[in-house]
Amino acid sequence: MKYLFSLLFIGAFFNGVAQEITGQQLLDKAIKVHDPSGNWNSFKGNLQVTMSTPDKPARVSDILIDLPAQKFSVAATRDSVITIYAVDKENTSVDKKDLRSPETKAVSTDKDNERAVFMKNYYTYLYGLPMKLKDEGTHIDPKVERKTFKGKEYLVVKASYNEAVGSDVWFFYFDPISYKMEIYQFFRTNEKGNIKPDSGEYILLSDSHLINGIHMPKVRKWYYNKDDKFLGADVITK
């Protein structure tokens, strides 16, 4: 009976929190947890990320993010091939090397330069969360939902974006006590802007890596929404 009462109390507490707090308020609380000193906008730092995917060699990426100077670079190594993408304000560069034939130099294409910009946006977005949800063009739903995911209760914020930013809809799952971000999930949308339920992925976050006063998730594990198939993991190794 005591156990049942505890469950009812916890459920009522979560419901009350979700009803009383807005999406922006929850986001502010989460940012205080992950970036307590407000360092993100002046962030300059290096990190190494090792990505592992089923049936493929690991890829090691050495990343520089320098927001004040508007600089970004990633040197990705898989097997003997090193690809370096760099963005310096509006300028991009790509350098590809095969250590087995170092005298051969690959020619970069427009697609490679587009890829450099994509890599910059990708890494600064994912490692800048939840702070990046304050960016222009991001729309935070004022309603906070309470959801159970993998047996745990979360407070969930929904984010959508201006057309120029992207058409995916994202959901961010926060611990209702600590406000730590533990999961994010995205879905594709159709031509009417409705979510495609079998699309997209969810990403489980664990551990923490402290860099320049910012608590970044150390481990990210990616899965398909439609069937929970494991896609891969990336770990901050330095």
From TrEMBL:
Pfam families according to UniProt: DUF6503
Protein name: Outer membrane lipoprotein-sorting protein
